Amino acid sequence: MNKISLSHRGQEPEKGILYLVGTPIGNLSDISSRALNILENVFLIACEDTRQTKKIMNKYGISNRLISFNQINCLSKIPEIISYLKEGNSIALVSDAGLPGICDPGEELVRETNKHNLDTICIPGPCAALTALVSSGLPSSKFIFEGFLPKKKSLRDKALFEISKNEKTTIFFEAPHRLKQTLKGLKEFCGGEREIKVFRELTKKFEEHIGFNIDEVINYFEKKEILGEFTIVLKGIDSLNKQKINEPALKKELNDLIKAGLSLSAASKYLAKKENLTKKVVYNLI
Fold first, then answer.
1. Could you tell me the strand order of the sheet in which 196-200 lies?
2. Which of 155, 178, 159, 271 has its CA nearest to residue 229?
3. How is residue 92 annotated by DSSP?
4. How far is CA 247 from CA 170, 197, 242, 275, in A?
5. pTM metric for this prediction
6. Buried b / exposed e across 233-248, counting CB within 10 Å, b at 16+?
7. What angle do CA 266, 271, 273 make, to 5 degrees?
8. Shortest CA distance to 236 belongs to which of 282, 170, 185, 192?
9. Cα–Cα distance between 116 and 166 in angstroms, integer?
10. Beta-strand pair 119-123/143-148
11. How far, in Å, CA of 94 to CA of 45, rounded?
12. Could you please report the per-residue DSSP string of 235-250?
């Protein structure tokens, strides 16, 4: 059985503890003295990319042992890390940016430490999703974080369809080479007037906050060279608008139109116009 709680903490880093250390998401000054102390004094640092972690270490004059721990090698590395922890060694886990365990294999390691009754402590730090959310001006009391959307178009469209129906604010990451495609998909499912804020290069020298609605953001990026890392914050659907979408009835009517001889595309277009919805929303009811 796992321990219920940690108590009576000693001087850090303590023996046999896995430390999840928050690191900067862009500006190297955004790191706590506690985090630096942990990185300097643990037995070793497990990091997503040793080159990224070395930038922090070089800036702050830290010298320590690094091992690679990423999506490719995590399954083979976990037993090694667990063994070190059981021997009483303290280990720091860091990601390329922000808090480890979010969109990286850190969660697998934490799950395994729990199975072995080993203690885990988080050293809080920056988080791109929350930094974007609080900077967006969009409702922040309830939100959903989607990480990266699927790469495959059919799965991506399904994810965008679900996001378009959500009343809560949605936050997700996007790669530069897929940004325009994603914005186009958002317009197809949400319409061009839905409020959105796109953040580029958060905390860095050329940080940008773009947009008021989807149409505005699409126009901004139309002739731009798209570089950097993007975090997208999308306002949820208005609850009154959501109530207007009777999915079972729409689905039945769509199927009836198809049985009557209309193509899926034509039937979707007809219903979308009739119900004042986007064609993509109707299309994805099938």
1. 143-148, 169-174, 230-234, 196-200, 208-210
2. 178
3. E
4. 21, 28, 10, 11
5. 0.82
6. bbbbbeeeeeeebeee
7. 95
8. 170
9. 38
10. unpaired
11. 7
12. PPPPHHHHHH--HHHH
Encoded amino acid at 214, one letter:
I
Say which residues have a Cβ less than 8 Å from residue 89's Cβ, sequence separation at least 6: 15, 16, 42, 43, 44
DSSP state of 71: T
**Look-up of token digits 């731009």:** 224
**Nearest alpha-carbon partner for 98 in 74, 119, 123, 73:** 123
Q: How confident is the model at residue 184 (pLDDT cuts 50, 70, 90)?
A: very high
CB atoms inside a 10 Å sphere around CB 268: 24
The token pair that represents 246 in the structure block: 């009777």
101-113 pLDDT, tens digit per residue, is 998 899 999 999 9
Tokens of 263: 């193509």
Tens-digit pLDDT profile for residues 119-154: 999 999 999 999 999 999 999 999 999 999 999 988
The number of angstroms, rounded, from the C-alpha of 213 to the middle of its chain's C-alpha atoms is 21
User: Do residues 148 and 173 make contact, with C-beta atoms less than 8 angstroms apart?
Assistant: yes
196 - beta bridge partners? 234
Count of all residues that appear for the chain in the document:
286
User: Which pair of structure tokens corresponds to residue 136?
Assistant: 């967006």
